[in-house]
Amino acid sequence: MDLSFDLVDNLSSRQLLANAEIRFHFHNNERLGVSYEDLDSQHNTSQVHTLRKTSSIVGPNQLSAKYKKWMSSRIKSKSKPCWIKGADFDVEKTSEFPKPDYSKYRNLSIVEIFEKFIDDEIIHHFVVETKNYALFLNYLDPNITANEIRCFLAILYLSGYNDLPSKRHYWDNGDDMKNIAVSQSMRRDRFLQICRFFHCTNNTEINQDDKGWKIRPFIEMMKKRCVNNFVPEQHLAYDESMVKYFGQHSCKQFIRGKPIRFGYKIWCLNSKDGYLVNFDLYQGKNLKSNSDYEKLFGKAASPLLVLLDEIPDDKRELNYNIYMDNLFSSPALFSFLRFRGYSAIGTIRDNRIPKNCPLSNKTVFKKKNRGYFETAMERKDMDFCIYVGWTMPSLQ
User: How far apart are CA 254 and CA 244, in angstroms?
Assistant: First the structure.
């Protein structure tokens, strides 16, 4: 559709909703509806501009100059890495990792620790959004209080381990059904009313690009609290976790052979004791993805670096040891983690091992005795190297 000198700023609704490519032709440095000063001064009268709808996803933290330089050199580098077979795995640490200090949590009660995460700000957010949703549905204000939301959440937690056929059965008079802790803390009809209107976000502010927009504010608040309450520990694990769900949702995943096959997949960064340092909901195209990370390390490993970037500077600069499985690990990722001051260990898939790596192939390894292993070191730069080792399984 060539509009040339028509009033392109006053199109009809049918034209605006139609799929079209708009071309603007300039004449005497002028166009109806827009001043020439708003345009790029480098364009002349003979040029034709094509506007297309584009979208770019930028991570929450821009890469620093040294990381951009490393990535640029990695992409442009055509030199083959130098491998040294039989190298030693001992790597000299640049600094000692500080001992974890849990003193500020030592004298806190269970409730006080819980409120470090589900605090007054989150409770107030639930109260406001629940009231707004009731009004959105054209109902009277339910006058829900913060204490009622706390009681409501407590009942939800209890229902996680005291499972009954339905919500109503917690107030049932049967000896095998009624839960005194629940029935004496909140009336049944009030619980069902809160359950009907309970909401985490404003329904008038929909983000079509975010499949998890209904719980996005709560996710971001929880991520912030998990990171802030994290006491740095040297050993961290990165993996996927499944939240069981059998309903219909575009984020629901099916992973064959897992204990939880159906549900939501969450990228998780954990400490060795199981503390959730940071996390993100998998939804295919991640809003916080970084194109540089995805290009170099793949879409599965990219969230790890984004989760690390979200950690505050004073905690992020420590020399962590990161463990992962073969879904994420690759020589390029391990080299980049080493460049950032981290150590990493994980299994690796055959197709990710460089062809010039001097390790024996899988067929040769199957013929070796139990416990046999080989090592190889890649020395691409004088300061940074990565190690790759294969080991036989403990039992066949």
Answer: 10
